[in-house]
Amino acid sequence: MLEIRAEHHKPSQLVKRFVAASNPFGFYPDAFFPNQAGVGYELPSLLSPLKEHQNRFTIFSHLDHGLSGGHKACHAFLSGIKVSDARRFSDGNISIDQKMAGWVGARTRFSSLHLGNNADQSWTRNGVQVPSEGDPARIFDALFLDNTADARAAQRLQMGLDGSVLDAVREQAKGFARHLGARDREHLDQYFTAVRELERKLRMNANWIDRPKPEVKLKRPQKGEGQKKNLPLYYELMALALQTDSTRVATTWADGGNLLEDFGLSYPSYHKYSHHGRLPELVEGLLKIELHQMQCLAKFLDQLQSIPDNLNGGRLLDHTMVLVGSGLANGSSHSTHNMPILVAGGGFRHGRHHVSPEEPEKRVPLNNLYLTIAQHFGLEIDRFNTSTGTLNGFG
Amino acid sequence: MKFVTAILFTVGIIVAAPSARKIEPFLLKYCVDCHDTETSEGGLNLQTLDREITDENLDHWRRVFDQLDRVGMPPSNKKQPSPAERSEAVATLLNSLVVHLDAKSKSQTILRRLNRMEYRRTIGDLLSLDVSLWDPTATFPEDETDHGLDNVGETLMTSDFLLRQQLASATEALDRAIQFGPRPRPQRIDASPPSPHYKQTALTRHHWSVNSQEYLALFAGGQGTKGGFAVIPSGEVTPHENGPRVKAWEGAPVGGRYNLRVVASYEVGRPWLKGVVHDTTEVPTLAVSLAPWGVGLPTRESPQDVQVREWALPRNGERREFETEIWLDRTWFPKLSWLNGPIKNPNLDLVQSLAPDQWETVDKKKLSNKEKGEWLRRMGRELAQIYRGPSVRLHSISIEGPLVRKWPPASHRAIFGDASWNELEPRPFLERFAGRAFRRPLRSGELDPIVSMVETALANGMDHEVALKNGLRAILVAPQFLYLYENKGQLDDYALASRLSYFLWATMPDAELLKLAAAGQLSDRRILLGQARRLLADSRSDAFVRHFTDRWLGLHQLGSMPPDENGFGAWYYHGQLERNGREETVRFFRHILDQNLSVSHFINSDLTFVNYPLARLYGIEGVKSRAFELIKLTDPRRGGLLGQASVLTASANGIDTSPVIRGMWVLENLLGQPPPPPPANVSAIEPDIRGTTTIREQLAAHRDHATCAACHRQIDPLGFALENFDPIGGWRKNAPGQRGLVDAAGKWRGKPFRDIVELKVILGKHQGEVARHLADRLLAYGTGRRSSLAARLQVNAITDKTRNTDHRLRDLIEQVILSEAFLTK
């Protein structure tokens, strides 16, 4: 699908969007990675729901962040840097979505959206986890529910009060800092940054208070329990948020823990199945759950492909980069090597199974792919966290 | 030769130059063979490594230190130093390292933000608010941790997300605290006999209408089942086509204390075993849980339930009256459940098998809603007629409140006294509040920015209430409130008051501490120690006991990897083992603290606390209720932390166990000697539970590999000894993926053992290491700083003082408080 590339536009003039979706336990490697490299590969079972889109996505092999730590490294999926190592890097452990969100700023109502229960994949440059929202109804309200005139007036009043509190406490902090030693003062910088950032966000928000929110056909969804019910809703809400340009950066995740809904499985636990230990019964169960995630993704791609892109022309998918993967490569061995990575849409040349070198000394950081994506998004950076360059053979 | 080295080492301790020369003979004798220029095993060349410790070679020397300290080197197939030789070398090298580090920077506590627990408790105390149900930090991001501790100043972050939530919580806290309205009038709802809420399970409703309207009967346990909780009927009844609907009391109209009175009895019923899974060993127990109205069905278990009372019922059917005062936030309500009733509610299908004549076979899909409702009612009534299984009967439920003893409430008076908004002079009003909030007297002009914000707003015509409240809000997000101020060097009395109070109470200092601080007396060691004892004797120190055990032992991770509900996991839920297991460990720690017993109890002990669910898990007889009992253990497998359900669950992952992870748990949390993380290029073991290769075989291959062996021979044996415990701490003879019986034998630090009982004897010889690690954790927790090499010297000094008396726990805590590290920034 070479025509996806809009040759008549320079990439920088286009509005690009980014979506990241992950899960806490990886994808079963044998069912995720194709056996052949390059184009025309045979679709492994987990990718079969995406058959129609085969030319609109790329599968990557032998990419990872070079980290260890099992579950404890999972939160570094979108950054390549563990919180514990953040202080060694100038941008801390900022995740790729936040890098982009900072660039989008106030151009959309939300600089980024994070859907899912306790997802821990998004981090600011200060090493702060960006909270995620798991209740689809609350996400719907934030995106599409207009406040009443009274509520908006109250919001403005509150904003004025908050503004003066922030002014006052900044001065309080200056006075406080005079009594502190050098290291404490340095630590208190976080407080000053927080005040400044909150002021900035309040100002950004102020411009949006009185602008009406977009109207959508979707009814206010009810909160379901577990990924079987919630994941399709998250995807649907993301599609609508992108369509209405409410945001250009969104992340979601299929949560772990015990599943409360029925997958037709005998144990109500995603985690249990991820510890399959190669037992066929458990592997089968795990694949059911992972297949569900892929089906949700397929539906999402269908949707993005069918929605016209009002800002760029073409279809929404043409300008939306969708990254799918996990911070854990293999939930059974708790390995973080050879992470399962898929990128769809966004105007890249797709349809291939991209295989990076496997040898330890030639390995390519996953962050090289993220750098490629970030540049494509419009960011003028030549490095992202642990990247060593852009990704060869992808663009 | 030994004699000579001993002398050398003795000299080494007092030498204070950042040099490793003093352990030269040790290095030559035990290390250089492999770590020489030729082989440089592990990338370490001790022949060329400069003996003067510098910034450049510090990492190398730390590695040498860690390996010696954690008994990682020399490898077992090489010549071994005696324990005395080793500890001398460790002490000498430690001194040299610290001298080097000292020259650079002193270890200190970095400006500490209140963490979530401290914030919640401080807001509660500052404003006299009950925060048992309301968590003002519910929307705060998780606190950052350092080696499990969540109160380390350096790691705790502040962000705009957090500040925004702190601002919102300040607003809500003040709204809750400030009560200018009229005194609320108490309500009384008396349901004698109670009627069923229409969302009650069918059998409860039909039993009431068919058999007896004198009481409400519960036929199954509430927890973990669909339905089974009784709520308080409001007395209001609305007509409905399927029969009248009884409305429930929809929670407290205003926050306050309420008096709950319940009369209940247990009905043993006919032996009714078909389809009824019911453990009757335990005395029948009625539980009171609190929940907010409007979250899910009130008659079902919800994630927000807070279980506050457990009442044992006589087995003989006698009625018992219970009366208790509970705190309810607005919209919260109590609900009652039969905590240990049958696991499933009796099902309508029972009619089919027991009264087949009455059973109407229908295709439910083809019925209209109305027809379906009628069919359900007919079958339900049939079931009620025939079912005579065990039940708990509620004869009367009443609630009265809010019980207002003083108005305005304490929270209001804490801010205003008896004044009203308009009478208040902004400056003195705000300064008085800020003095309490900042936990010390204000410096002159310290509050000027906030005072002038309020004065400007008033001058611009802002409403008095709005302006002053905004001033209070600003105080609650000012850095002086959110952070603990500590002066440089020796802490002044106010800083010391806060440090002590946040250590032992996790909240702000009380009036007595502040009074002593004002008088400049708290830094007097005798008075400080007296205060430490007073704080530990006060129930507020439960916060320390709970939180510290959570963090020291990693129990805060319980719940993040919940066990599977099938198989061994079923009892985990029905027996509420997460809650009860944690309680055991907390009570155990509290007992050792209160009785000032040796830390050796943590390794092995002949006492613990159990209630019925734990007793059943442990195979202990004679404990038959939810009440915890101090018991003398006769089973040597259970004594000490390594036999406790909480620890055994937290060191597994809910699904299976791993000797590596459990072994790491012991090294890390009990002995304080975590091996370094595995090299990044080593691939993880992929478990295979089909039985082709056992984990022991896989790990054996691992240990044959030289790189892995250095650490894994330390780790794995400890884990093997624990393999007899399943992922929730139950005893097992067979384990998945293992052929035959569990093999728990091993060899650790040269000493062979057959099972956990023998391993604990070996670990008992390492009591000093357990004490040292505990002192390290207590010091880090008490001062809110990372542990460091420099702190290691302090920790050694602390444990030196408690060694002669076998490291008793309260002594250890007191020595931590008297240590230089605790008394200085």
| Number of DSSP strand runs of chain B | 16
Number of helices of chain B: 31
Structural class of chain B: alpha+beta
Helix coverage percent of chain B: 40-55%
Fraction of residues in helix of chain A:
25-40%
- Secondary structure class of chain A reads alpha/beta
Largest interface pair: A-B, 60 and 67 residues
Spatial gap, N to C terminus of chain A: 14 Å
CATH arch. level architecture of the largest domain in chain A = 3-Layer(aba) Sandwich
- Beta strand % of chain A: 5-15%
Q: What number of structural domains do the residues of chain A give? A: 2
- Placed side by side, the strands forming the largest sheet of chain A appear as 2-9-3-8-7-1-6-5
The fraction of residues in strands of chain B falls at: 5-15%
Report the total helices of chain A: 9
Please tell me the total number of domains of chain B.
6
Shape of chain A: globular
Quick tags:
heterodimer; A: 395 residues; alpha/beta; Alkaline Phosphatase, subunit A; 2 domains; eight-stranded mixed β-sheet; two-stranded parallel ribbon; 9 helices; 10 strands; disordered N terminus; B: 825 residues; alpha+beta; Jelly Rolls; 6 domains; five-stranded antiparallel β-sheet; three-stranded antiparallel β-sheet; 11% strand
Question: What does it look like?
Answer:
The complex is a heterodimer of chains A (395) and B (825). With 395 residues, chain A is α/β, with parallel strands linked by helices. Helices cover 35% and strands 10% of the residues of chain A. Chain A starts with 16 loop residues before the first strand and ends in an 18-residue tail after the last helix. Residues 1-11 of chain A have low confidence and may be disordered. Chain B is an alpha+beta fold. Chain B has 31 helices and 16 strands. In chain B, the strands form six sheets. In chain B, strands 2, 3, 6, 9 and 11 form a five-stranded antiparallel β-sheet that branches. Chain B has a three-stranded antiparallel β-sheet with strand order 8-7-10, with no helix packed on it. A two-stranded antiparallel ribbon of chain B has the order 1-12. The longest helix of chain B is centred in the N-terminal third of the chain and has 22 residues, at 83-104. At the A-B interface, helix 4 and helix 5 of A face helix 6, helix 12, helix 13 and helix 14 of B.
